[in-house]
Amino acid sequence: MTNMTHKKIIEITKKIADRSQASRTDYLDMIEEAQTAHSAKGLSAGNVAHATAACPVADKKSMIAGDWAHLAIVTAYNDMLSAHQPYERYPNLIRGFAREFNATTQVAGGVPAMCDGVTQGQTGMELSLFSRDVIAMSTVVALSHNTFDAAIYLGICDKIVPGLLMGALQFGHLPSIFIPSGPMPSGLPNEEKSRVRKAYARGEASREELLETEMKSYHSAGTCTFYGTANSNQMLMEIMGLHVPGAAFVPPETDIRDALTREAVKQLVENAQKTQTKNRIADIVNEKSIVNAMIGLLATGGSTNHTIHLPAIARAAGIHINWDDFDELSQIVPLICKIYPNGKADINQFHAAGGMSYVIRTLLDNGYLHEDVKTVLGDGLEAFVSEPVLKNNEIEWRTGPATSGDANIISDARTPFSKNGGLRALSGNLGRGIVKISAVKQEHYLITAPAHVFYDQNDVVAAFENGELEKDVMIILLGQGPKSNGMPELHKLTPPLSALLEKGFNVGLVTDGRMSGASGAVPAAIQITPEASDNGFLGLVKDGDMICLDCNNATLTNLTDDFTSREIKSTDKTKTSYKTMGRNLFSTFRETVSGAETGGSIFFEDM
């Protein structure tokens, strides 16, 4: 690559490494101890008999002899998630590929996989963030048998990939690879879907029209085609070197998709047999690859959920990052992608325009990534500017495009859509939070409006439908943080707030909840911490308080004179009844979970 890494990126990476020195050392010591234990294995005859009992005879002989690599499959398959439905056939597919390369496989375990699209606006969404930590624990249980030489992870969607990766890092001594299944074919354009949703919110479209629109948008197996958390996950796995190059956005049920899966198995078997190399996941996920992940998120305008997930993933590897790191990087990393909701294109159009190979190329060429990282292929990120082509049913790698196939979708990093990454870390007398501005128009960067306090997103929708919000207003939605109700996503708010914005009102949202990658054009200060139910200052806001959300200066302020003299009082309004949908079983999570900036996790304490 032509350019050295940007000086400021090097400085930020060093700051993270210095901050993380003790915890990263402890993590790597743990991995070395696990490596030693794994090398000894020490399985008894009974252990081996149980592990191989159901295996085909040929596999059993190879597993007992120990002369073939043995691969674990940890799968998030279910056939309700469109993105995960293709995984039904993957274990048998992988098993056949593994035998080609003198390896055996077993499904070590399954992890839960819930769909935020199904649960949005429902009480089940209150388990969504917590499911990530459950997935991490399930991954650890799956690998606890200590019989495997490497691991394959099958997962795509919102909390699933972060959870798998957090669990995988506890077995960081194992070579590992993530295998995606790809996005569904393009359906109804996302802009048309958004138009009908807003029309329905205004009472100008029927429920039948809304349902028809949604069915045309989400219509087959594969990942949803907008650039939300699921597709942001796939971008991250590729830019971190945990996929084979070009795997992220190839459609399911195609010859090249299967060939890429075969290539992934081949690479993993090779890594598992290189006992003297450091192609372990603990070495791939380090300070530089975490910084590359944050840069990829900013440069592509990815999901704000990763300002929660990446800190948790990093902490699982002994690395401490915070929202100031995101903010500092955002000031220098250019926004080079326009993918819905930050543009008109869907993920398939992004892939056709050059996709990840061109994104990585232009970021590397202009000094915005660390090239000297380890990946599943070995040393260096440069291999990921290649793209796969299918020749005689085999994958061949060719150099990816040197220019964008559509400059309206992916720009050169020298001529970006914006000179910054479109994400700011807010601070002020209401706490700390995140605002995503990549889809917000410049004239909405500064909003000052009177507060209207709510405790339930359904009440916001009802107030909109009753005409109570036909004015300049700052919606303050409390009791949506991890300690209060598990931090559900608040997608229900996007259509009505967008409709108010289009009517010309100054409207913004301030909440201790999440909005993710579909937050859109309304300025939204989200993930405010400390949250209201944790004695956060947000709980002091009263109806009519003047609130200033300043995206230019990254501040969030209650301008009311007596605000700072108010006494924080706990209120039952930020607490919910947890007697249905299994939420009662997650009381320990709500009591012990960390704040959003440290990952919203039960595993890590607030810094």
TrEMBL record:
GO molecular function, one term: 4 iron, 4 sulfur cluster binding
UniProt GO BP: D-gluconate metabolic process; Entner-Doudoroff pathway through 6-phosphogluconate
Residue stretches making up the Dihydroxy-acid/6-phosphogluconate dehydratase C-terminal domain: 409-599
One annotated Gene Ontology cellular component of this protein: cytosol
Database matches in Pfam families: ILV_EDD_C (PF24877), ILVD_EDD_N (PF00920)
Residues covered by the Dihydroxy-acid/6-phosphogluconate dehydratase N-terminal domain: 70-382
Entry EC no(s): 4.2.1.12
InterPro entries: 6-phosphgluc_deHydtase, Dihydro-acid_dehy_C, DiOHA_6PGluconate_deHydtase_CS, ILV_EDD_C, ILV_EDD_N, IlvD/EDD_N
Keywords: 4Fe-4S, Carbohydrate metabolism, Gluconate utilization, Iron, Iron-sulfur, Lyase, Metal-binding, Oxidoreductase
PANTHER family, A to Z: D-XYLONATE DEHYDRATASE, PHOSPHOGLUCONATE DEHYDRATASE
Protein family (similarity comment): Belongs to the IlvD/Edd family.
Protein name: Phosphogluconate dehydratase
Lineage: Bacteria, Pseudomonadati, Pseudomonadota, Alphaproteobacteria, PS1 clade
